Amino acid sequence: MEKFEPLLVSVVIPAYNSAGYIGRALDSVLAQTIPAHQIIVVDDGSTDKTAQVVSEYGGRIEYIYQSNAGAGAARNAGIQAARSEWIAFLDADDEWLPHRLDAQAELLRKHPELVWTAGNFLNCVCRTEQRAPFLDVAACRDILKGREVAENYFQILLEGLDPWTGTMLIRRSALIEAGLFSTDLKRGNDYDMWWRIAYRYPRIGFVCDPLAVYHLDVQDSIIRKYTDPAIHVDLIRRHLQLAEQHNMAASFQPVAGMLLRRWARAMLFDERASQVRRFIHPFRPVLPWTWRFRMYVLTICPALTRWSCRMISRIVRRFGLRKKLVRSPDY
After folding, report:
1. Can you tell me the distance from the alpha carbon of 142 to that of 148, in angstroms, rounded to the nearest whole number?
2. Tell me: the pLDDT tens digits for 132-180?
3. Would you say 7 and 105 are in contact if contact means Cβ atoms under 8 Å apart?
4. pTM for the predicted model, two decimal places
5. Which domains does the chain have, with CATH numbers?
């Protein structure tokens, strides 16, 4: 029987005031069917008992403390401290399923040319015991056409496969080559990092079986904290330029349009509805004119549109017209 060298993985877990749930994350890493080589918690200036909880695990966890600088800076500190060839990411409020590393190691054994891989995951509103895959496994396999490797990250993003941070497994050298995580983005540094890798290495492995659990009911998440549309405008604008520089504009522009439409629709539900026109104006070339016209009409009276959207959403929830749990974009 052919023997394989074990896949050496450093796990990077950024944490900020995570005492209430980081134990769940750490337990899920320690429960992997193949062990991680190194587990690093980067405490981004917590003021609660995060350090105390981590200390209870003894020498099994490496603990780094830094002044509060954001998730991007915390992940970078973990990458720089990593001793393994491969880096896996997990946020302190989420968790892995036991086979997460095993499934991805198997995929990489079959495709050693890859520099990154991701996978499906479960959305969980655990306080009400609602749990469902982000994408139906059969639908995932259809998108990949029965394969384990997608030829173009941006294409699968368009088709509904959205590789999530908690399932990413990436060569450390690829992260360094791409420039590590941005520290000046309050939101979106995950997408920013994956796109910069994809310009260089568009092929990505993907496991269709769920590998992790994304907890939707965590309070004070980045999703809720940073809602300024200017954050999205800056992210898309800088990547339209980067995609051109890497000769990947044809792949990236449809993704830019998709995300802008998604974010604009979300803005119609809250106090940002009045800002939609200003939000979409800089991106006329990547947005269909028919869609832009609908947005202009819908924002003639933002308050009425906001009320209507909320009422429709309540009706959908009340009568169970949308069964699937949907992960809000956290980028």
Report:
1. 11
2. 889 999 999 999 999 999 999 999 999 999 999 999 999 999 999 999 9
3. yes
4. 0.89
5. 9-223 (3.90.550.10), 227-318 (no CATH)
